[in-house]
Automatic annotation (TrEMBL):
PANTHER family: BTB_POZ DOMAIN-CONTAINING PROTEIN KCTD9. The lineage of its organism: Bacteria, Bacillati, Cyanobacteriota, Cyanophyceae, Oscillatoriophycideae. InterPro entries: 5peptide_repeat, Pentapeptide-BTB/POZ_domain. This is Pentapeptide repeat-containing protein. Coiled coil: none annotated.
């Protein structure tokens, strides 16, 4: 079904189209700054290069819409249904995306600096090269997402799900990763300097060549607050400890991979 022409005319004339039917609409390179599109239906719409800064799109349906290089700075996208949306090169810094459904979204090279993605779902999303510095992402679902080369400095990812995520050469320095699920994540060459990993689940994670200077909390939840030894004696068993020291980082997979390459089964 195509967009309602009357709704398009109303949007262009007034920048007001709450709940409007804009499916498949061609709205490229327009100035819709400050527009109210809350609850609007924008599935498969084309908004390539459109200015939507400070716009209200809360609760809108954006699945498979095209926002390539669009300006969504400081916009409200909270609670949007945006499965498969294309935000390639989009400006989303300071945007509100709390509770958004961005499953399998394309956010390659998107700027999300200081955005709020708390509680959002980005399962399987592509965030290669994205800027997520200083972003609020507590409780976010990034399972299976690709964050290779992403900038995630000083971000809040507490209690996030990053299981099976690809974080090759991602910069997570000074990030809050407390309580994060990193099971089977690929952190090859990732920068975790100064990161807080208290209570994080690193079962099966690939930390080959990862930088961990100043990282804290690399031990099991029930030992939080205790200062772990610099390196556990080789002959001592620790049945209740899942400890990862900086000295051990490059040997985590040495028994199965003498070349220091990513663990089999994970992308390189």
């Amino acid at each position: 079904m195509s967009a309602n022409n009357a709704h398009i005319k109303r949007l262009l004339a007034t920048k007001q189209c709450q709940g409007g039917d804009l499916r498949d609409a061609h709205l490229t390179r327009l100035n819709l700054s400050g527009a109210d599109l809350s609850g609007a239906k924008l599935m498969f719409a084309n908004l390539n290069g459109t200015n939507l800064s400070n716009a209200n799109l809360s609760g809108a349906e954006l699945s498979f819409a095209n926002f390539v290089a669009a300006d969504l700075m400081s916009s409200d996208l909270s609670g949007v249904d945006a499965k498969g949306v294309n935000f390639l090169d989009a400006k989303l810094n300071h945007a509100q995306l709390g509770g958004a459904d961005l499953v399998f979204a394309n956010l390659v090279n998107a700027n999300l600096e200081e955005a709020n993605l708390s509680g959002a779902s980005l399962e399987g999303a592509n965030l290669i090269g994205a800027n997520l510095n200083n972003t609020q992402m507590n409780g976010i679902n990034l399972s299976g997402a690709n964050l290779g080369h992403a900038q995630i400095r000083n971000a809040n990812l507490s209690n996030a799900d990053l299981s099976n995520a690809r974080l090759v050469e991602a910069d997570l320095s000074d990030a809050n990763l407390s309580g994060v699920n990193l099971r089977n994540a690929n952190l090859l060459n990732a920068n975790l300097n100064g990161a807080n990993l208290t209570g994080a689940d690193l079962t099966g994670a690939n930390l080959a060549q990862a930088k961990l200077d100043g990282a804290i909390g690399l031990y099991q939840d029930n030992l939080v607050g205790m200062r772990p030894p610099d390196r556990p004696p080789a002959s001592q068993n620790h049945p209740n400890m899942s400890y990862v020291s900086v000295l051990q980082t490059n040997s985590l997979h040495s028994s199965s991979n003498h070349l220091g390459l990513p663990r089999p089964g994970l992308p390189s």
